Amino acid sequence: MKTAGWSTRRFAAQVDRSECAVRNCSEQWIREGTHARKTGSGATRKTTRREDQRIVRPALVDSTVTRSTIRAYVGVAIVPQTISRHLAIANPSALSVHSL
């Protein structure tokens, strides 16, 4: 972008991003030599991959299973939203899990 003589505004319009996002990415490139996200950014995982599988399995076997039943089956203190999110990722049709 800079070497081609483009303005931040022009480049942002070309890649369909905000000027702020382009500017931040450019500054990170100059500062660190990369545009990649830092490792460890974002929320920390509350469940392991195995626990994720244990969340999804009962809903795939029985579509009438409740989130509280799934939570008891997994054996980990997780909120109902975590269960719903995992089910939505694994199988969008499993969203019919009951909230009891």
UniProtKB/TrEMBL annotation:
Domain of life: Eukaryota
Region annotation Disordered: where it falls in the sequence: 32-51
Name listed for the protein in its UniProt record: Transposase
Organism: Trichonephila clavipes (Golden silk orbweaver)
Gene designation: NCL1_35029
